[in-house]
Amino acid sequence: MNTASRSDSVRGDGWATGGRTETVEKRRHRVVVIGSGFGGLFGTKHLKHADVDITLISKTTSHLFQPLLYQVATGILSVGEIAPATRLVLRKQKNAQVLLGDVIDIDLEAKTVTSRLLNSNTVTPFDSLIVATGAQQSYFGNNQFATYAPGMKTIDDALELRGRILGSFEGAELATSQEMRDRLLTFVVVGAGATGVELAGQIAELADRTLEGTFHNIDPRDARVVLLEGADAVLAPMGPKLGLKAKKRLEKMGVEIQLNAMVTDIDALGVTVKDADGTIRRIESSCKVWSAGVQAGPLGKMLAERSDGTQVDRAGRVIVEPDLTIKGHPNVFVVGDLMSVPGVPGQAQGAIQGATYAAKQIKAGLKGQAPQDRKPFKYFNKGSMATVSRFNAVCQVGKLEFSGFIAWLAWLALHLYYLIGYRSRIITVIQWFVTFLGRSRGQMAATEQWVFARLALEQVNSDEEEADELAAALGAPPANGKLAEKAKAAVDRRVG
Ligand SMILES: Cc1cc2nc3c(=O)[nH]c(=O)nc-3n(C[C@H](O)[C@H](O)[C@H](O)COP(=O)(O)OP(=O)(O)OC[C@H]3O[C@@H](n4cnc5c(N)ncnc54)[C@H](O)[C@@H]3O)c2cc1C
Hints:
Layout: E1 29-34, H1 38-46, E2 52-58, H2 69-73, H3 79-82, H4 86-89, E3 96-100, E4 102-107, E5 112-117, E6 120-125, E7 128-131, E8 135-137, H5 155-174, H6 178-184, E9 186-190, H7 194-210, E10 224-228, H8 240-252, E11 256-258, E12 262-267, E13 270-274, E14 280-284, E15 287-290, E16 294-296, H9 298-306, E17 318-319, E18 325-326, E19 329-334, E20 339-340, H10 348-366, E21 384-389, E22 392-397, E23 400-404, H11 405-418, H12 422-437, H13 448-473, H14 483-495
Parallel strand pairs: 1-2, 1-7, 2-3, 7-19, 9-10, 9-15, 10-11, 17-20
Antiparallel strand pairs: 4-5, 5-6, 8-16, 12-13, 13-14, 18-19, 21-22, 22-23
The structure holds flavin-adenine dinucleotide (FAD).
Residues 34-40, 57-60, 66-67, 69, 102-103, 132-134, 152-153, 194-195, 297, 299, 336-338, 346-349, 351 line the site of flavin-adenine dinucleotide.
């Protein structure tokens, strides 16, 4: 690491908060990259040989390969295979430093990024900035649904879901009534995009192949998997032909697909659905998962508000300039799922290409290219694909559409290619071999904590806020009673 570039007092111990003091005149160009997903990692790697110092700040310690999250949720892969530690991935990149922290502020005038880890803030100065903080799950204004229907965006989501799926089978084995058994064996997936299709298919295969014959009181093959979609097609972005193929295949596997079905409520015991004709009905289900929408994170809105005239779209994504920067700040790039560019889908390719483009502009700038001479970003659509079941996928490359086994092989090869690290690839191949050729799955552990920790944490946080507000009002020091216990009790009440 170039120590001259690390002379800022704010970074002296890596933890202090404060202003910036340059003590060395000559320093390298400082690039800060926010996020360690596809955008952040590929942007950083593309600058490997550039004469710059990079600080990659992310609130997660790993690079998460989101397209395979559903395989973690359904016991095929472990977390390690799809989420290698970012600092190990970048070990050989000497111009890059990795910092753990949640970015809470970007000062465009002072050119600093403030990140928070536990109770400490770190201020990191930049000359160029690449913001790649991705998107979160959107419940379309019904955030209360998240209590009972987790999304599929993070490692925690996938592990929680694995616990909920396997826990439902365990509960069904012990159920004391048919009604309870049916509820526990009904799995509802909301949203028939690629994630929903893949999850529904894998829950069905888990029940029919892996768990079959492993219980005494229930037959896991009785499990009912319901895929709900508010629109009139499965995999709508991939076109009617492939959508229909995926639908037929899922139905052959026993997945119930309900189209034009709007979810209006979700509680501990089930889902309320409104059909196109206005009928309101109920599906009793203990295990629900939400894969219906995305919403950009809060940094997008912050950037837009602080730059002169930049807007965000309805999903909170930043409407960037043709060179992926924000208005008035040619050194601040927004890439990946956080950017809004017509024709660029929220997919890994969009993030990789956007980040690579941004890195190229930074390198060109070092060679003297003026921002106004940049060629606009151009997206090259390499196609999209989704697996439906083992040996079956749908694939679209340009005008070419194909499905079945060949598509599945293409899916396999492409995902292996983009997985980071040889170790992950080798282990993944072994796990796939075990799962798809045999009936077993290597990652069937689940714990109570995985299922309850998210809700318990939310409860602790809100209880703590409430207690502190009360304490402040009474002029007392902040309360720290048995909050965790209270939280667990509250969660127990909620999940019934
Ligand atoms: C379940 C699922 C399946 C998918 N399947 C496919 C697929 O099959 N094919 C495909 O092409 N695409 C797929 N995608 C989409 C693809 O994963 C995304 O388009 C891609 O990950 C976007 O990359 P990104 O870098 O913009 O964001 P992300 O990969 O989401 O990375 C965001 C990063 O920013 C960090 N971060 C967020 N906020 C902060 C903050 N405030 N401070 C610090 N760090 C922060 C996060 O920790 C993370 O490291 C899928 C997505 C999901 C969720």
